[in-house]
Design a protein that fits this description.
9% strand; 9 strands; 2 domains; Rossmann fold; alpha/beta
């Protein structure tokens, strides 16, 4: 393969990477992009098709190959590994490529791999460099995309919403980028969530209006020039914008307007409305309802707002702060390790126990077949205070529990349930029941806002409450991240 052909293939690789960034900019957790249409899907769209990878793989990395050509080949190898879910290897390959031939493009590719691998601080450094770069390989599209990705990481993985807003504004102000109503819709939508989290609901509604208008205009363009998946994304984005705008209106007391908006949503979005109705009828803490509908206040120097639009970092931070001061901290469903790293950073030297097969879900979940969300059996790099228990919960939990100190000496402080499945959640709660008592906090990652939520984590928890005579209070809900946090207030199963 000649240099021109290789370069052409690599540029296609990078272009598809930019399409990835733009496709998920509306909500980088993948709202509306799962096969089932669920909000907050964790499914990953791989960066390149196999044809592009195979073309670049024809060049082998050897001492006789120039550094530039070797960097092309390593970038292709990294893309192939990322496509397979082998993110540790992908990060290594992209890092080697960057060392051989440092460009803004390669930093962007490495940043995407680091982000997916749950290493937000390193990803931020790479995106930020690409965002600020004005070298020959850093065009306006790359800088725009890097700023959008930085906004997502800052808000959802670092808990810094104000910084996230600055990055969205930088993307919107990028000279040379082909701004249009449609291309700006994703940024409008993203910023709307951040403003809503801060309690600026009026401004958020205006941005959701602009995002919906841009998406609907873009649907016509998409139908003519792009594929079915892009059309599906545009339609889903419009539906989600209408839903969240309606919730914001309810919080501002505009109930009739919100009711009319809910009525315009198609039947496949009913699970979103049902999720809100469950929250609103009796369960959303009144203090948070008030806080969400007014300008945010500060308590002990910290911003205090409701959490309907909040990302994972803040949810986990507040869950841990609301739990008893000591005890077990466990995560069930680790994937690439993003949330377990967050927890590990928050507990000092205390141990965080992580449970996963790292081979994907063991059974089908909605339209996702068994094996979805695989980490390709790779154990993610984590801090020293994380211990992994690899295998099915039914195989690892009995031995783990038997190895612990008595329940009265070592109760559960916090459980992060991110296994998605009903059966997995049942097993978690059953094996830890005698350690779950007053002050135990449980964070559920898919409690609401999926098409099957009444049959999944929600159902397993409600059954456990009946079986073990648990009483509880809801501490927070996030329609944005689908997370729900509960605190146990009474328990007949607790031995303590």
């Amino acid at each position: 393969m000649n240099i021109a052909a290789l370069a052409s293939a690599f540029l296609l690789l990078l272009a598809v990477g930019h399409q990835y960034a733009n496709a998920f900019a509306v909500n980088p957790r993948g709202f509306g992009n799962s096969a089932s249409g669920g909000v907050g899907s964790k499914s990953k769209k791989r960066l390149v098709d196999e044809g592009v990878v195979e073309k670049i793989k024809e060049v082998n990395v050897s001492p006789s190959v120039s550094p530039v050509m070797a960097a092309y080949a390593l970038s292709a190898r990294g893309a192939e590994m990322q496509q397979q879910g082998r993110l540790n290897g992908a990060v290594s390959a992209f890092t080697e490529a960057l060392a051989l031939h440092p460009t803004a493009d390669r930093r962007f590719l490495l940043a995407m791999a680091l982000e997916e691998n749950g290493e937000p601080h390193k990803a931020v450094a790479m995106y930020d460099w690409a965002c600020q770069s004005h070298d020959a390989g850093a065009d306006a599209i790359l800088r725009h995309d890097a700023a959008i990705k930085l906004a997502d990481l800052c808000a959802n993985d670092l808990g810094d919403v104000e910084r996230a807003i600055r990055y969205v504004d930088a993307a919107m102000a990028e000279d040379g980028y082909a701004h249009s109503t449609f291309s700006n819709a994703a940024a409008f939508d993203q910023k709307a969530f951040y403003l809503a989290e801060q309690g600026n609901l009026g401004e958020a509604i205006l941005l959701w209006d602009a995002a919906i208008e841009g998406t609907e205009e873009g649907e016509l363009v998409t139908h003519n020039n792009m594929g079915e998946e892009a059309v599906s994304r545009a339609v889903a984005r419009s539906h989600l914008g209408r839903f969240f705008r309606a919730v914001a209106n309810i919080l501002l007391g505009h109930d009739q307007e919100a009711k009319a908006a809910f009525a315009t949503l198609p039947v496949e979005c009913q699970y979103m409305v049902d999720s809100w109705n469950y929250i609103a009828t009796a369960h959303y803490p009144q203090e948070q309802r008030v806080l969400q509908s007014v300008q945010p206040v500060r308590q002990n120097g910290r911003r205090k707002v409701g959490r309907l639009f909040t990302g994972p970092f803040t949810i986990l931070e507040e869950a841990l702060a609301s739990a008893r001061p000591n005890g077990l901290v466990c995560e069930f469903g680790v994937f690439h390790g993003k949330s377990i790293r967050i927890l590990a950073s928050m507990v000092g030297r205390d141990i965080v126990d992580g449970f996963d097969t790292f081979e994907g879900i063991p059974e089908a979940w909605g339209d996702d077949p068994a094996g979805t969300y695989t980490a390709a059996a790779e154990i993610p790099p984590v801090p020293d205070n994380v211990r992994f228990h690899v295998g099915l919960f039914s195989d690892t939990l009995p031995g783990y529990v038997a190895s612990l100190e008595p329940p009265e000496d070592l109760p559960v402080r916090l459980i992060n349930v991110d296994c998605d499945l009903y059966q997995g959640t049942v097993e978690i709660l059953y094996h830890l029941a005698n350690r779950i008592g007053p002050g135990c906090v449980i964070c559920f990652d898919e409690y609401l806002m999926t098409p099957t939520w009444p049959e999944d984590e929600y159902k397993a928890f409600q059954e456990a409450c009946a079986k073990f005579k648990w009483e509880y209070e809801y501490l927070s809900f996030s329609l944005f991240s689908k997370q729900v946090v509960v605190r146990i207030t009474a328990s007949e199963s607790f031995v303590g």
